[in-house]
Fold:
Amino acid sequence: MFQRIISILSIIVFFVIIFIGYMSWNEKIAKTTQEPISKDIQADTSETMALTFEKLQQAITHLPESVQQMFKETYVNKKQINVVFVGSTSTGLHENGWSMKVKDALEKFYGTDLLKISIYEFDGTSTEFLNSELPEQIIEESPHLVFLESFRLADNHGFVTVEATQENLITFIEQISTELPEAAFIVQPPNPLSSAVNYPKEVEEIQQFLETNGIPYFNH
Structure:
């Protein structure tokens, strides 16, 4: 268990470093249909940097030894690290959305041979999300790392209580962990609301709840 915790924290360090400079929470997300959307990202290989083993070694020198070894073995064995972004329309599944910017940055540097990135966006509350087919679809992806947006903005608009949001997040994480015990999770906040009073407090309450339960939270 200790080794798994160290591995999760190491992966978080890697992605947080990559994320800096690519996040924009003022993006306005276009509404999608109620049906969940899945988009497997396939980068244009003509614009993707050829990642040699030497470049990879240089890029991961700031990482803990265990994570460096994971990337080297993945590269040498020609396997992929499977990353999944999951959330409401705050996920930004459009050309200028933050998740698309992040995947472009990651794939252009590390290449699609090393990283497979999928984005799952759901237009609805966390309760509706749990009752959809999307969790099972995500399990079928067998992700190594799941970035989960907390759904609080959608839940706020859908009159879902903070307590229900917290329970739904835990339920989803446990559902994935039961089937994929080695999967790592990072929960992140939804888009901010200008001039909101209660909403920021709700987002903070969810953060505190998750951190108390030992779930990594990336508050960017």
Remarks:
- The two ends are 27 Å apart (CA to CA).
- The mean pLDDT is 76.
